C-alpha cells in the first residue's frame, strides 16, 4: 500500500523573499497598508528586489499596490488582498500538514 502524496506548497509564496513579504503583510490588520519604503526597511531588501517579488505577488493577485501623491511626493502603498490572505492561510495549513506527516 503506497503512502498518500504529500501536499504541495504554493510556489508563489514559497520563495523565501516572497514568504517574508507575505508574512509581513499578513501581520497587518485586514485592509491595512504599508508604505513601500517601510516594507523595504522592515524586510531589509533592496528596492529592486522587493519590487520584483511584489510584482510576482501582484500578478497572482495576492497583493494590491496603490500609487498616489502626498504633497507632490509619490507614495506607494502595499496591502495583502483577501485572496493573498487566504493563500497564506492555506500555505501555513499545508506546511503544518507536511510537518505533521514527518512525525
Describe this structure in words.
InterPro entries: WH-like_DNA-bd_sf, WH_DNA-bd_dom, WH_DNA-bd_sf. It holds the Pfam family HTH_34. This is ArsR family transcriptional regulator. The protein has 103 residues and is α+β, with helices and mostly antiparallel strands. The protein contains five helices and three strands, in the order ααβααββα. The protein has a three-stranded antiparallel sheet. The two termini are 19 Å apart.
Radius of gyration: 16 Å
Q: Name the helix and strand elements from N-terminus to C-terminus, one letter apiece.
A: HHEHHEEH
Q: Decide which structural class fits the backbone.
A: alpha+beta
Helical content stands at 40-55%
The coarse silhouette is elongated
Mean pLDDT: 93
The assembly state of the depicted protein chains is single chain
Work out the strand percent: 15-25%
Distance between the termini: 19 Å
Number of domains: 1
Q: What's the CATH H-level superfamily name?
A: Winged helix-like DNA-binding domain superfamily/Winged helix DNA-binding domain
CATH architecture: Orthogonal Bundle
Largest sheet: 3 strands, antiparallel
Strand order of the largest sheet: 1-3-2
CATH topology: Arc Repressor Mutant, subunit A
What is the top-level CATH class?
A: Mainly Alpha
**How many helix segments?**
5
Low-confidence stretches: none
Amino acid at each position: 500500500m503506497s503512502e498518500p502524496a504529500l501536499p504541495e506548497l504554493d510556489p508563489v509564496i514559497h520563495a523565501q523573499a516572497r514568504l517574508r513579504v507575505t508574512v509581513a503583510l499578513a501581520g497587518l490588520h485586514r485592509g491595512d497598508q504599508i508604505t513601500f519604503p517601510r516594507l523595504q526597511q522592515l524586510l531589509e531588501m533592496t528596492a529592486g528586489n522587493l519590487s520584483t517579488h511584489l510584482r510576482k505577488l501582484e500578478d497572482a493577485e495576492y497583493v494590491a499596490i496603490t500609487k498616489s501623491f502626498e504633497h507632490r511626493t509619490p507614495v506607494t502603498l502595499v496591502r495583502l488582498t483577501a485572496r493573498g490572505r487566504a493563500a497564506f492561510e492555506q500555505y501555513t495549513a499545508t506546511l503544518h500538514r507536511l510537518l505533521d506527516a514527518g512525525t
